[in-house]
Amino acid sequence: MNVSNQTREWYPFVGPFDPCPPKYVKTYVVPPNQFIPFQPMNLPQFSLQEALRRGTLWPALYSPYDSKCGKEGT
Amino acid sequence: MWIYDKKLQYPVRVSKCDPQMAKYLTEQYGGADGELAAALRYLNQRYTIPDKVIGLLTDIGTEEFAHLEMIATMIYKLTKDATPDQLKAAGLGAHFAAHDSALFYNNASGVPWTAAYIQAKGDPLADLYEDIAAEEKARATYQWLIDMTDDVDLQDSLKYLREREIVHSLRFKEAVEIIKADRETKKVY
Amino acid sequence: MNTKLDEQYYRKLEELQQLDFGLVELTLYLDTHPNDMQALQQFNQLAQQRQQCAYQFEMQYGPLLQFGHSFSKYPWQWIETPWPWQV
Q: Where is the Protein CotJB domain (chain C) (predicted)?
C-alpha cells in the first residue's frame, strides 16, 4: 500500500498493427479514501482557508490532481 | 423544506470565453453521474434507508445542489455573450437552435437527463454501493474535464469538486460500515 | 441598485465560504461520527463564528437567506443583484 503516491502505472500490451502512436505507460489515480475504511477521530486538520481551497478539512483525505492538458501522454 | 443560500459554496472563476468547454461541462450538469443525478439519487433514497444514515444522505444530497450551482455558474460564465457563430464552432449549434444560451439538463452529447440514471433498490447496501460508485464515476469525470482545459481558474474549481467526490465516497463507505455493524440491535440486548 | 463588488466584497465572501465549508465538512463527518465530542465542540464553535460573520456580511451586502432566515432593509433587498453566478 502506497498512500503518499496516489498514481499507479501499468504497461499495456503494444500490438504491431495499432495505428495510433502507442503509450507504453498508462496511469490512474488511487485516492486516499481507498485506504480509509472509517475515518479515525482527531485527524490533523487544514486551516479553514486552506481547507476551502483544497476541498477537504483533513490532509489525510486530500488528493492532488494535475491537468494533463497540453502535456504529451506519458 | 430547503432554504436557499445566496452564495456559491466555492468561488468560481473562468479566465476566457470557452463555449466548447461549457459543452463538456454539461456532463456534470445533466449527465448520468452529474450533480443533478447525485442530488436526486441521494435525497430520494432517504425514505427507505435505515434511520441512522438518513442524515448523511440529506446533507450530501443538499451539498450536491451547491455543486450543481457551481457547474451552472461555470457554463454560464463560459458561454456568456458568446455569439451564435462561436456557439456553432463549439458544437453548440443544435443546442442554440433549441435553447439559445439557456442551460438545459442534458449530457455533453446532448442527451436529455433521465430518471433512469438514478437507482433506488430499497436495499441499503445496494443503494449505498450505488452511491459510492456514483461518487467515483463523478471523480473520474472531473479528472477528464480537468485534463481538457488549460484554464487554471476553471481547473481550480473543478479540482475542488473532484475532492468533494472523494470525501463523499468515504462518508458513504462509513455509512456501509454503520449499516453492517447494526449497533442499535446490540443495545437492546 | 447595484452592489459594489470591490475587493472587500470578495474577501468577506471568501471568509464566510471558509467558515461554511468547515461546517459542511464537520456536518458530514458528524453524520457518521455522532459520538466525537471534540468535533462536535468545534462544530458548535464554528457555527457561532459563522453567525457573526454572516450577520456582518448581510448588513453590508444584503440578505443571504430568505423565508425569514435573514432580515431586510427597505426596499426588499432579496431581489437585488448580484446573484451567486454573476459575481
A: 12-86
In a domain, B2, yes or no: no
- The predicted-structure confidence for B95-138, as pLDDT tens digits, reads as follows 999 999 999 999 999 999 999 999 899 999 999 999 999 999 99
Closest-CA residue of B relative to A52 is B10
ipTM of model over 0.90 = yes
Gap from B135 CA to chain A (nearest CA, Å): 11
| Chains contacting A (3+ CB pairs below 8 angstroms) | B, C
Q: How many domains does chain B have?
A: 1
Interface of A with B in 41-70 (CB under 8 A): 52-56, 61-63, 65, 67-70
> Mind listing the pLDDT tens digit for each residue in C18-50?
999 999 999 999 999 999 999 999 999 999 999
Tell me the domain boundaries of chain A: 7-61
**B93 found inside a domain:** yes
Say how far apart CA C87 and CA C84 lie, in whole Å: 6
Any CB–CB contact under 8 A between C53 and chain A? no
Q: What is the pLDDT of residues C57-74, one digit of tens each?
A: 999 999 999 999 999 999
> Which chains does C contact via 3+ CB–CB distances below 8 A?
A, B
Calpha distance B164→B187 (Å, rounded)? 34
